[in-house]
Amino acid sequence: MLRLGKKLGPILWQFPPRLRFDPVLFSSFIEMLPKDTDEAAHLARRHDDRVNGRDWLRTEEKRPLRHAFEIRNESFVNPDFIELLRKHKIGLVCADTVEWPLLMDVTADFVYCRLHGSEELYVSGYDDEALKVWAERIDDWAHGREPTKANRVLKPLKQPQRGRDVYVYFDNDVKVRAPADAQRLNECLGVTPQSGARMKHLRRHRREIPKSRPQHRPA
């Protein structure tokens, strides 16, 4: 992880469907998470001998770390959970699937989406109308707004907000739909990926000229 340097994005934590929201458990877990690269390096030094010679414990500079939680149990549809994430600036993964809760509460200065296929997990693709809806949401998030078509636990944050980084991953790759869907979403957003280069994620701030450039790719 540390070897990624400046390319390191949010760290994704996925919780199994059987795990229910426990405020005490999750508060304790969050407190143990490294907040920056220095803390991560310190934690990594506690590894056992199975990774000797394959570890990377150096950091070029101290940088804050971002964490994102992907939940898969209805018990997390809870105001206390959303408030906990906002308190610690942890992103709530917006997971589009029929099997898990689809929540779009903004809880950090970035938004992390995983599009698994809204009809069949990991399989179904997205038609033009669905991609248009997601493009509108992404554009709103990127410019500090709150989408109108959004499932939330709490009321939208007060506006205006600073622009946010937006990460979008297509995980509907069983039938190789992810690359095509990602390309079409690019087109909806008016984004042209640089040839041979990984698309840079969007950074939006007030007074900047609006130009959506969110990062999205197949997971």
From TrEMBL:
Residues 196-219 are annotated as: Disordered. InterPro entries: DUF72, UPF0759_sf. Transmembrane segments: none annotated. Gene3D superfamilies: Protein of unknown function UPF0759. Residues 198-219 have a biased composition (Basic residues). It holds the Pfam family DUF72. PANTHER family: DUF72 DOMAIN-CONTAINING PROTEIN (PTHR30348:SF4), UNCHARACTERIZED PROTEIN YECE (PTHR30348). This is Uncharacterized protein YecE (DUF72 family).
